[in-house]
Specification:
The complex is a heterodimer of chains A (about 675) and B (about 260). Chain A has about 675 residues and is an alpha+beta fold. Chain A has 18 helices and 21 strands. Chain B has about 260 residues and is α/β, with parallel strands linked by helices. Chain B has an eight-stranded mixed sheet, sandwiched between helices. The longest helix of chain B is centred in the first third of the chain and has 17 residues. The chains are: A alpha+beta (about 675), B alpha/beta (about 260). At the A-B interface, α18, β13, β15, β18 and β19 of A face α3, α4, β5, α5 and β8 of B.
Chain lengths: ~675, ~260
């Protein structure tokens, strides 16, 4: 019996590849140009140009480039034409000077290296288009052209800008992959944040799991940190186990958070032998971004030991020859036996390092000192104690099918047979203890064309009537053609559903079940057009209503506060955000419409007259103002905005909700224009 | 108003002939004596279709009709499905008429046929308190389907007829609805006015007009709008001369 066990390193995200920086040359050039306030010199090179040449003046002025010989006034005019954020800072205008140091300038290094920190890129690749123009000019790195002194010389060069835009190349000490950044995942244990796992590049830099994050960051500031997600890893491991169980071997068990046991006895020959099979699995996982090591041995314990502690060959496979497994794993360290940390510590203190030494010790004192579990582990490694595996069972999709000798052509037999299929499906679902969430009905025609109807359900259900009603409504989408010869119902998504209580019409339920109604409506118009309203605690009227899912009513218990929270002192209780103290209209316009011809006492009287949609309304009654200020935390433009809302009634009894922007005292609050926002009943 | 007993017995015979004879129908009364006594069943029938339209095409009357329906739905016993054509219904306004947001399901339909189809789905579900839909036109056949779907249930079906174009009366089309209403907004309850200032708005008022009802007479009434529980009220009759709206200065008592 041979068992294999792949061990998984924590998956490395492929998307983070900062070493592979593909420079966008046009973007860099544009940024350089923008930073330098225009092209430094766009004169055609080596073509006899001299400053002030009349034939050159016209074309370059049209492009807005700077050229030496401009007068101060010209430049001032051009500066004024720029938008405010692109104008060069004051320091540089009026005289040619160095740019102001930006506030985050790096201090010089400890060993006296120059400040700046960005290394001059030794090998900046020059794009091929410019290769033709590879003549010394002012824009090339390292060039210093003294005679062409543009007015706006900011002292920066394209090279420095490129270096700043492009992150510096890392030369990692000796990682397996070139250019990969060190990546660690962290978790919070107790009061400190520790490294949970480290990528090979990180491990090459000396970062091991268990180090504190602050220490890591101090040593290698360019490390990339992600949160550890043990649940996600466990789920991913389970999915991987299901994948392997479907294709490679029927018995796959999860050994621990990083390892799987695969029983390949009797299966290996189907995949070309043990070594070939293991190699293929390693390559498959590598394509998925997972680095794996596989150990193959006769017993589970030995396989685990090989996978974790033996040196793999070039394919990542450690194959133990058949026979005495304990001798084969003798040189491995004692952790290979899967014993607990306390026992390991004790063993280390006793001077026992390898498996051979552990096995050589007499058994009875071991049992007395470490317990029976310790000895069981040794026996499991040697094969004297069986270790049965608890395999993962891949979920099986539920499908019912019906084939017909006579192809179906009309709607009635199709509906009848769908009814029969739904009954059988309900039985199958009941046996499996699940309810369907997504069903697909596939109708295969004689000409092998398959048509599908898909229905979704808001809650897992296996009620035949409900499913049948939803399916039958879509029958007219099926085109029988020359005849349908097979109908299949697939359950694409199923949720666990226990035994359902039968209430039907017997119970006058407190809360009637809306799930079938929601299903029926959603399958007709889609999920986006069915919703409930939810009160949002916001003063701005159009933001005080939110959408909610139709089925779960929006009752959220108020979050409980800590014992010493000051909000507990407020005995009044919270008002509903839509309290009737602030009257709200029944219909609200999507966008407030401006009204004209408004006559209102200033600053806090409701208007006496306004004209909206061509009709002039004379107001006889009014209430207000209700002052609603903008929410500065949402948009900074609303910081000073104020709306004064008035509820007004005209002589015919129609009631409107108007507002005026601004409070009349400060101009920043609004421009005093009037709008109508809604109508009251 | 007491009816002569002959008329009452004739009415009972008619009701028995009409079918569902001796079973008492479930009704949703308005709670105001003067309205319920004039309705044939003493309230709005729960298993029937009722139509409401605004009196004029403007937005003011439309909002009044909406709140009239919201008040009825608020007093219904269960969840409410509101099928809209446009998303201009403001939930806080409905909340202030008694219809809280956890009771209402909104569905947006693309055209009138879909509105009616969704209303029918809601009626067939039998677990809703009220189904409200907004359409422009509904032919007799569609309203009859809705009425049939509502029979034997406890869901009240309410149809808000919007104005199709200027001048066309939405209630001119014959329909199978049990009651047909027309709602217009009226000047609100007068409040004591201060001189040279605008008075505040008191409780809103509506002119409701029962245009047709099956088994009863039409009537018109001026009522006060729904309060926070969805109940409409009847305006108190002014014993003295009603205060003029607008800036008429009241003669002081010293005079």
């Amino acid at each position: 019996m041979r068992r294999a066990e792949p061990s998984l390193a924590p998956p490395r995200p492929d998307r983070v590849a900062p070493g592979a920086f593909k420079p966008g040359w046009t973007a860099i050039k544009q940024r350089c140009d923008a930073e330098q306030g225009g092209k430094q010199c766009d004169a055609p090179r080596n073509s006899g140009w001299r400053p002030g040449a009349k034939w050159a003046r016209g074309s370059s002025e049209a492009e807005g480039a700077t050229w030496a010989g401009e007068t101060r006034r010209d430049v001032a005019r051009r500066i004024a034409a720029l938008p405010a954020h692109q104008r060069p800072p004051m320091r540089e205008m009026g005289r040619r000077s160095e740019a102001a140091d930006h506030p985050y300038k790096r201090l010089p290094g400890d060993d006296g290296t120059k400040a700046g920190g960005w290394p001059e890129p030794a090998g900046v690749p020059i794009p091929s288009r410019a290769a033709k123009q590879h003549r010394p000019g002012s824009n090339d790195p390292g060039a210093a052209m003294k005679e062409v002194a543009a007015f706006l010389d900011t002292g920066r060069s394209t090279a420095a800008t490129v270096a700043r835009v492009r992150p510096p190349d890392h030369v990692p000490p000796a990682p397996p992959q070139d250019g990969a950044s060190p990546l660690v995942t962290v978790q919070k244990t107790g009061s400190r944040i520790e490294v949970a796992a480290a990528s090979p590049a990180a491990r090459a830099l000396g970062i091991i799991p268990g180090m504190a994050l602050t220490q890591v960051r101090a040593a290698t500031p360019e490390v990339i940190v992600r949160d550890a997600d043990p649940d996600g890893d466990a789920r991913a491991l389970r999915r991987l186990a299901i994948l392997l169980a479907r294709r490679w071997t029927p018995v796959v068990a999860i050994a621990d958070a990083q390892s799987l046991f695969l029983d390949i006895s009797g299966v290996a020959h189907l995949h070309g032998g043990e070594h070939a099979m293991a190699r293929r699995i390693v390559r498959l996982l590598a394509r998925g971004g997972i680095t794996a090591r596989i150990g193959i041995a006769d017993t589970t314990g030995a396989a685990w030991a090989c996978a974790h502690h033996a040196l793999p060959d070039t394919d990542g496979v450690a194959l133990l020859p058949g026979g005495d497994t304990i001798d084969a794993i003798a040189p491995l360290p004692a952790e290979a036996l899967r014993i607990d940390a306390r026992a390991l510590e004790l063993l280390r203190r006793l001077g026992v390092e390898t498996v051979a030494e552990v096995v050589a010790m007499p058994r009875a004192p071991l049992v007395r000192r470490f317990g029976a579990a310790f000895v069981t582990r040794i026996d499991q490694a040697s094969g004297q104690v069986a270790e049965p595996l608890d395999p993962i069972i891949p979920p099986v999709a539920i499908t019912v099918e019906q084939r017909f000798a006579e192809p179906l052509l009309t709607a009635e037999p199709i509906a009848y047979w769908i009814g029969q299929l739904v009954q059988r499906l309900a039985d199958e679902l009941a046996k499996a203890g699940r309810g369907a969430r997504t069903l697909v009905l596939a109708a295969a025609r004689i000409d092998t064309h398959v048509q599908t109807i898909r229905i979704g359900l808001a809650r897992a259900t296996r009620t035949p009537d409900h499913l049948l009603r939803l399916l039958v409504r879509r029958i007219d989408r099926l085109d029988p053609g020359f005849g349908i010869e097979a109908l299949t119902l697939h359950v694409q998504r199923a949720d666990p559903l226990g035994a359902e209580a039968f209430d039907g019409d017997l119970a006058e339920g407190e809360r009637p079940d809306l799930a079938p109604l929601v299903d029926a409506i959603v399958n007709r118009i889609g999920t986006r057009r069915l919703w409930r309203a939810r009160a949002i605690d916001s003063d701005v009227p159009e933001r005080s209503v939110g959408g909610a899912a139709p089925l779960d009513p929006p009752e959220r218990a108020a979050p409980s506060w800590r014992r010493d929270d000051v909000r507990r002192l407020d005995q009044r209780g919270q008002d509903h955000p839509w309290h009737p103290r602030w009257p709200r209209p029944a219909r609200l316009l999507r966008r407030p419409e401006p009204v004209d011809n408004v006559m209102a006492g200033f600053p806090d009287q409701p208007p006496r007259r306004f004209t909206w949609r061509g009709v002039t309304h004379r107001i006889v009654r009014g209430d207000g103002p209700e002052r609603i200020t903008g929410e500065w935390w949402r948009r900074s433009g609303e910081r000073d905005a104020i709306r004064d809302y008035y509820q007004v009634e005209d002589e015919d009894g129609r009631r409107f909700w108007l507002f005026r922007r601004g409070d009349g005292e400060r101009a920043a609050t609004g421009d005093l224009s009037w709008y109508v926002h809604g109508t009251f009943g | 108003m007491s009816e002569p007993s002959v008329l009452q017995s004739l009415r009972d015979t008619l009701r028995a002939i009409e079918g569902n004879g001796h079973r008492r129908r479930a009704v949703l009364p308005f709670g105001a004596e003067r309205i319920d006594s004039r309705l044939a069943d003493g309230g709005l029938r729960l298993d029937a279709l009722h139509e409401v339209a605004a009196a004029t095409p403007g937005m003011g009357d439309d909002a009044s009709a909406t709140l009239f329906l919201a008040g009825i739905a608020a007093r219904a016993w269960g969840p409410v499905l509101w099928v809209v054509r446009r998303r201009d219904l403001f939930a806080p306004g409905l909340y202030q008429s008694g219809l809280s947001p956890d009771r209402v399901l909104y569905a947006e339909a693309a055209d009138d046929a879909e509105v009616l189809a969704l209303m029918e789905e809601g009626l067939r579900h039998r677990a809703l308190g009220a189904v409200i839909g907004e359409t422009r036109r509904a032919a007799m056949a569609s309203t009859r389907r809705l009425q049939l779907a509502a029979e034997n249930g406890r869901t009240i079906a309410l149809l808000l007829k919007r104005h199709a174009r200027e001048g066309a009366d939405p209630l001119a089309v014959p329909s199978a609805a049990v009651t047909r209403w027309r709602v217009a907004s009226a000047p609100s309850t007068p409040l004591p006015s201060a001189p040279y200032a605008l008075t505040g708005i008191g409780r809103a008022r509506w002119d409701i007009d029962l245009v047709r009802q099956r088994g009863g007479e039409p009537f018109q009434l001026l009522v006060e709008a729904c309060d926070e529980t969805g109940r409409i009220a009847l305006p108190a009759r002014m014993v003295d001369r009603p205060v003029a709206a607008g800036g008429a200065v009241a003669r002081t008592a010293a005079a």
